[in-house]
Structure formats: C-alpha cells, structure tokens
C-alpha cells in the first residue's frame, strides 16, 4: 500500500469521517495486516495509520487485489463506479509508459518468454493455483494469450502474500467440501438413480412450461469502456498497450494490453510484469459518467425501461420495438408466428445494429457489442461472443438456445464462479453446460434441492426475471449450517 509515502502498492481510498480505512488488497505492513471484510471486495486495516510504526511502509511483495471476493460473480469494468468509490491511482506520470525493472527476466512477459527460460515448477504451481484469482480468467481479446505464462507470473508475485495464504486456506476448506461430496456421490445406488430420474423428468416438464422464446432480450456492453474513453480523448494511445488504473489495480485494459494477459481486476504491478510497456492512465469518472448518460439517452429510444447494470452495460427488452417494426412491414401480427421465425430474428438483428451505430455516434466513436436472445442469461453470454464491436444472436427457439448454451464452459454462466467451477469439475467431471445437463441426476443426489434446481434451469437455458429474487429468498431461508455454506459456494445470480 502506497499510503502517503507513494510507495508502489495498493491505493488507499480517502478516509471518511467515522469510517475505517480500507486497503483494496491484502498487504503486509510491518505493523498491520489486512483482514477480509465479509460481503465486500474491500479490506479493513486492523492497525493504525500506514505511516506509523517502523519500516519503510512498503507492501511486502505481492498483495493481490481481491476484486471479486463476491466469489461467484466476476467484477466488470464498471466496478469502481458501482461501489461508489473512485480509485486513487499511483503512477509516475499520466499517459507515460512505465518501465519497471524486470531483472532481465524476459520470461515474465506472457507473449515473449522462451520455453528454456521458464521455471517449470512455477508454471505447474501457477496452473494449480490459477483458480484462486479472478483475474486469471479470460476476457474478450485474450484468446491467444499463453495462460501458463500468465499463471506463472501471478503465482511468483503472489505466493508470499497474505492474500495468497488466505485464499489457499479457503481453498482447503472447499477441498474438504469436495471430498465430502465425492463420498456422497459414491452412495448413489441404482434404486436412488431411478427415483431421481422420475423426479427430475417431472421437474423438466414443469420448467419447460416457463420457457418463452418470443421475448427479445438484449445486453449491450461497451468495449473496454474506460480505456475506450481515454483512447478517444488521447488518440496516440490507440495502438499502445494501456490500462485505466495504476500499480494498485486496473479497472480495465485495452485490447492491445489484453494480448499480454493484462485485464481488469488485475493488480498493476503484475500487469507490468506481463507487459513492461504498459501505460497507466488515471481514471476520470466525470467523463465516463457523462458518456454513459449519452449512451443511455440512445438506449431509451428503444426501451424506455432499460436497465443500466453499470456505466458500460445495459439490459434492454426490445420485444415491443421489434414487434412494432414487424407490424409496420407486414400486414398483421400473425406474420410473427410459425413460419415468420426467421423474420423475427432478422428484424431484431437489424434493430440492434441500428442501436449500436447510434451509440457509436452519440459517444464520440466508442463501439459496443451486443447479445440477443430469448432471455437475459443467454443474451449476457452472447454479448461477449463477438467482441469487440459485434453482435451475436441466439436463435429464438428451444433447440438452438440449448445448443448455444451447452457449447459453453460453465464459467461463462453468470453465477458460476471459481469456487463452483472447481467443485463441479472435481466432483462431477463437469466443465461444460452440456455436461451439467448430463450429470443432473448426480447433482440432485449430492446437492441441496435449491442448488440442483437452479443448475437444472441453467442447463435447460431457462431464465426469468424473478430468479434473482427467488435465489435471494432461498439464501435467507436456508439459515446457518452446512446448507448455508453450500449456498455460499453454489448460489449467486
């Protein structure tokens, strides 16, 4: 933590009257230790002022940003604004490249290391511990990154930190749950499987009655939003790897930086190891908010009730708008039924393309990507498929929706994070949504009814707006004990 000394580390937000100081990641000052603040991605400092006590006050190595301690939901580019807290970024100079001492170890660059220079042991450990960090998960534009090298860098810079020790401790607790679930899975008898098959089949029929394939749900997501605003106002940054943030943490990175494995929610000092040429830019939330308001004005022309989930992401229901336009081009609404299915998809795609063009014009050239689908869960996943500056449509019928979702890794589903991903893989051998459906009987045998019901709904590509509320009510209902612990690991929407 840099505190008042400016030493590279986590940025401390301004203290408010009567409020404790916070550090945005685990650090190891000589006279203080960060502890987890339940339910928050921030951490309370348990000791006095960072500048009190002996020592230089330098963060002892590798405190890692805990951007998504809400374990089951990855934090997006709009995190800081959503938390109502502006980051204080520490950087040598705004808009200037930072070239820290890499010790001559070029293997620390994710895209340039030679195999002979790599520490194989660190690579193995990096792979084994990658699930402890949200910023080792892929984002759009990172498809060609050598993940083993990124994981190696993250491990080497984090292995001695207090956060790593805490995360490893939590991981061991999850390993105990995994062990218990494996033992429970072994008890699945043929008679129990037969009764579960009847029970799950009846539930599937019930859930299918909730399916509605005529709704046009759209998720619009601005491309690397904060970075895009900065590149718009500083065109010389467009072809250079840059990130909004600082040594403490990165709010977002442009696509050039992502080629090195740099991404949002990653500590800046780790990002610099991956990409020594990385340029840090201070955040300017006044600009982000003003541009977001302009985008919202455009979106409300299509859906007056659209929901902005953050400064850079919006959910729109375009069912009425698409239907209205279809009526204008056809003799009656009957053309929307049966054989006019392709017309519905074509019109929806046309409307979204028009919307995106208007957003680009209103925002001063910023691009956005979009996902179109019969429900918002599918639309959210689809919004990431054609990034940047593209759109993906999930066909508006049952078989196509299921096929689209079944091809995805389970981690792509909102609500499935690093803990749940690991548990599904190590207990049930589930890595894709298709496998989630195939192992539904095993899931119903081992998990609580609410957990298994939610996962079945996911596997069937069924979703509705009341689900988040229902899940929250269930979490309250399960109370304390093992069911509550399982709820924490297995339920989040």
TrEMBL record:
GO terms for biological process: DNA repair; error-prone translesion synthesis. One of its GO terms (molecular function) is DNA-directed DNA polymerase activity. Residues 71-125 are annotated as: Disordered. CDD domains: PolY_Pol_IV_kappa. Residues 71-91 have a biased composition (Acidic residues). GO terms for cellular component: nucleus. PROSITE patterns: UMUC. Residues 217-417 form the UmuC domain. InterPro entries: DNA/RNA_pol_sf (IPR043502), DNA_polymerase-Y (IPR050116), DNApol_IV (IPR022880), Rev_trsase/Diguanyl_cyclase (IPR043128), UmuC (IPR001126). This is DNA polymerase kappa. It comes from Rhizochromulina marina.
